[in-house]
Structure formats: structure tokens, C-alpha cells
Amino acid sequence: MDECPRCQGSLEELSLGDVSTVSCPHCEYADIPVEHESVPETPESWRDALNRFYEETVPKVDPVDVESEADAKPEPEPIARED
Ligand SMILES: [Zn+2]
């Protein structure tokens, strides 16, 4: 049995089919091999944190105003004039 590189506790061996890995029940260290079974680490909170980051850093800009300015084209001259 290996020792945890973090807390020197005894590692638990886990087997997933052909793949065996170790994890530490004391500090939740996990030696996860690069496999398709990799467990995503809380993608939801990461996305929330990212959204919060953008909301706090990016100044509030009216998207309609930005679009109209970027898409600004010269007004076409009126061809037919009635005088
Ligand atoms: Zn540990």
C-alpha cells in the first residue's frame, strides 16, 4: 500500500475495470490516470465564477448602442426629390 504524497496517510486502491487508481480518504488526494472516466471538478461553480468575474470587470455597455455604432453606415442620399 502506498502512502499519500500529501498527508502520508494510507491510500485506498480503487479499481475501475482494467484501470486501478489510488485515492486518499484523509485529504481526498486522488491519483487519477488520464482516462475518459476523468471526473470533472464542479463545472457549475466554475462557470458561475466566470460569469461573476465578467459581470464585475466588464463595464455595463448597452449592446444595442455598440452594435449600431459598429454597424454604422452612411445614410443613403434620397434619390427622388420633390420640390
Ligand atoms: Zn492524503
Helix/strand layout:
Blueprint: E1 12-16, E2 19-23, E3 30-31, H1 43-57, H2 63-70
Antiparallel strand pairs: 1-2, 2-3
The chain binds zinc ion (ZN).
Mean pLDDT across all residues, rounded? 76
* N-to-C SSE string, H for helix and E for strand: EEEHH
User: What's the total number of strands?
Assistant: 3
Described by strand count, sense and barrel closure, the largest sheet is: 3 strands, antiparallel
Q: How far is the N terminus from the C terminus?
A: 97 Å
Assembly type of the chains comes to single chain
Low-confidence stretches: none
Fraction of residues in β-strands:
5-15%
Rg calculated over all Cα atoms:
29 Å
Bound molecules: zinc ion
Shape: rod-shaped
How would you classify the helix and strand content by structural class?
A: alpha+beta
Widest sheet: strand order?
A: 1-2-3
Number of helices: 2
How much helicity do the residues have? 25-40%
Biased composition (Basic and acidic residues): 70-83
Region (Disordered): 60-83
Could you walk me through the main structural features you see in this protein, from its secondary elements to its overall organization?
The protein has 83 residues and is α+β, with helices and mostly antiparallel strands. The protein has a domain at 12-67. It is 28% helix and 14% strand. A three-stranded antiparallel sheet has the order 1-2-3, with no helix packed on it. Strand 2 (19-23) and strand 3 form a beta hairpin. It is rod-shaped, with a radius of gyration of 29 Å. The chain starts with 11 loop residues before the first strand and ends in a 13-residue tail after the last helix. The structure holds zinc ion (ZN). Zinc ion (ZN) is lined by residues 4, 6-7, 9, 24, 26-27, 29. Residues 60-83 are annotated as: Disordered.
